[in-house]
Predict the 3D structure of the following.
Amino acid sequence: MAEAGYTPDVYSSGGLHTVREDEEGMATPDVKDADMKIEIAREVYKAYGEFEEAPTKLEIFTWYLYAMCSYFIPAVLIPIVFPLFISEIRSHGNIPNESFKNSRGLTCYLREMDLYHGLTNSTIHVNGSAFSPFEWTSISWGVGLIIAFPILGFIAKHLDHGQNQQLIAITATAIGAVFCLPSGVFKTKWIFPLYIAAIVAAYTVCTAFHTRHLGLMIRGFTGHPLRKSQFPHRRDVASWLSLHATSAGCLGAAIISTFTYHMLYPSEKFIGLWIVSIFSGLKWLVGIFHVFLANRPAAITSLSFISSGTPHVLSVFKYPHAIGSLFGVFLASFSTMCIFAGAVLHAIGELCLTPQHLLHLWLLYFLVPLLTLPLLQPLQKFLKADAVKMQLLGLLLSVTTAGFGFYYRLMNWSRGHIMFFAALQSTAAGLLHAFGRILVLDCSPCGKEGAFSVWYSWMRESGTCLGFAVATAIPGMIGKSLGAAFVVAVVAILVLIFGNISSFGGAKAAGHLSEESVRGSPVHGLDSIEMKKPIQLETP
């Protein structure tokens, strides 16, 4: 934002005009047509990283489509499909479908128990160490995050100030989808870390692009900067977009989980799971249509013009609200995955949930947010709750689920209780996902959405990976996994409350709010045009 009496030089590339204004006030070219003046003003505003066109309905729809085609990757593909895939490499004969009574007095079937033990037993031996398929998946997941870290650091500046954002997203999506296709070609456990690590790294990059695009669409709807009285409009727009995208993502996860169930019980499970992996890659590729339509290049300022004093990706550490929000995202993702993985393992291995009821559990977990999340948006608007308060609601629901599960860990849970708390926890997971990224974007200054989004993507995936590793490393001990999830969720609540984090405070620190109602234009002679009047949002 230019100060009075001084406007920085704005360099251009690709044939666009170069706008300069020195201390003597060099006039802009004489443009008589008002439409051309407005177009030039938009170019200059975009050079400051503040102006964004309002998204079209098609752009919003394809953004939702990408969420539906990619959300399942950390929710189903990596924590469910790949461990099953790896467990099928072992040799096992025909298991009779006989029943027996376990230590809890419940009726279990040998086939389901064979599947459970194949996932949890340490059957992979490496240099004297033994790992279960779950642990092998966790290690591969962590390797993918390590690979993604320098990549995210490199692309952060290019997302915010380059012209190749589409190329980055297309490349990452294509790489991730391609590595889903040959997963069943080589029936060996050694090849799966390569597949999983590549998919994780690609997905993390795609999530950064997708999250940054949300920040640009929000700014396109609301304008920048906003008066304090206009901030609720930004809150409503962001909530609407993020909640519906999360609902679409849950629908995509339900589709893949159902397909996985139907492919898991033919005679040749390995081939069936390979088909699921191929379908997952093709589905991920469908989401690439969003990338083709998401043509929102960065400001015309060239990369070489940007100050190189502090690395662009490290600019997040200048904003305390952003640091707190990222820490909250990490803790929330840990808690939700730890509850999900631990509870599913307990339901299969200790409570002997039948395959049909397991499918019902998955469907309930992924489909309930389609109903509850859109209904919570009017409630949020009525209560005037910001992203922090909605995250606190999600964390309280997670604490309730983990607390009840821990307290009654020695009892046999009825199917009704399992389904009820699955619905409760799925709503919590949806709230935490939807409002976690909103809070990060509220704390992100204009022109730095990419840098903040790469941190959001990496922290969220790191928390999810760690939660999965903790829950699956101690199968049969539901008390420890739910206890860990409970403690971490409580810590997240304390961070958000006593860390003095708020959407309004983060937005103010990021420069989204202004006391002035009308800003002067950086283009000479256009001060009378109010470029930043918020656009009223209808149903996208």
